[in-house]
Design goal:
Distance between the termini: 21 Å
Number of domains: 1
Mean pLDDT: 82
Helix content: 55-70%
Number of strands: 4
Radius of gyration: 21 Å
Structural class: mainly alpha
Length: about 280
């Protein structure tokens, strides 16, 4: 019974995240402002925009949510996080069928990853103060740049298909408008697409590697999630060591050998509790 509840919650978590991602994408592609009027709060619930805007109420909401149930922001609200989950959903099943076993690293690798996260966070802060702005590694900004530079020109091209066809046939028309539609800022578009492709490759390879190694927001929220009120725990007396939770964990934060979970990396996706055949992973203080 408990396992079915966790399965339902895990599915609902993913569905809610996908809906948030679609709604946010629609607001980026909304040339009339209609969709933005439907979801005016979508940008406000993003961590870095709220921090840079000094939105105390929204920051308190995000921080309290993290202290309550861990990095739920990363698994539901962050567009880049949900994007990685979708990439993993499409690719991981095939790899699993080939007996691919995603195992967490040992203590040495964990220490290296920890120092890497701290170094990137400090570099991110230094870069922001030195003029790179605080959005250069922000997950919301990375996804927004991809949509703006890569997807928006395609949507514009579809909207102006008649004008492009007329120009291609030699009819009189606005050559400038056609160029604006079909020739976007190619350098920016290539950079945005390359970053997202790299993150997608990492997600296909080892799940939330970007979130738990590079993303400064993930590092900051992970430091708080360590003290979350409700966190997943492994009941050593019930665990049979099947390692299904290790294989399904998108954050690679479960260490069955020592019956421990790294709560700084856990993104509260609930997949481990949903897949455990003995109900050994429960949420408690």
């Amino acid at each position: 019974m408990r396992k079915n509840v966790f399965r339902l919650l895990a599915v609902l978590r993913l569905v809610l995240g996908v809906l948030m991602l679609l709604a946010l994408t629609a607001t980026f592609l909304d040339f009339t402002g209609t969709v933005a009027g439907w979801f005016p709060w979508l940008r406000e619930v993003q961590f870095m925009p709220a921090l840079l805007a000094g939105s105390a109420l929204m920051l308190v909401f995000l921080l309290v949510a993290t202290l309550l149930v861990g990095r739920v922001y990363c698994s539901v609200l962050c567009p880049l996080g949900v994007f990685q989950d979708l990439v993993r959903l499409v690719t991981f099943g095939r790899w699993r069928d080939r007996r691919f076993k995603a195992r967490p690293g040992g203590p040495v690798l964990s220490a290296i990853q920890g120092w890497t996260r701290l170094g990137i966070l400090l570099g991110f802060a230094a870069g922001g103060f030195l003029g790179l702005h605080f959005t250069w590694l922000d997950p919301y900004a990375i996804y927004a740049r991809f949509v703006s530079f890569c997807l928006t020109p395609l949507v514009k091209a579809c909207r102006h298909a008649d004008a492009i066809a007329a120009w291609a046939d030699g009819a009189e028309g606005s050559f400038t408008r056609v160029l604006e539609v079909v020739v976007p800022a190619s350098g920016f578009a290539l950079a945005a697409a390359s970053v997202l492709a790299f993150i997608a490759a990492l997600a296909a390879w080892r799940g939330r590697t970007w979130c738990n190694t590079v993303c400064p927001v993930g590092t900051m929220l992970g430091a708080l999630a360590k003290f979350a009120w409700f966190r997943p725990h492994i009941d050593a007396s019930s665990c049979v060591g099947c390692r299904l939770c290790e294989r399904i964990c998108r954050a690679h934060c479960i260490h069955i050998d020592v019956k421990a979970i790294d709560h700084t990396q856990c993104v509260s996706c609930l997949d481990c509790s949903a897949v455990c055949p003995k109900g050994a992973i429960t949420w408690k203080r």
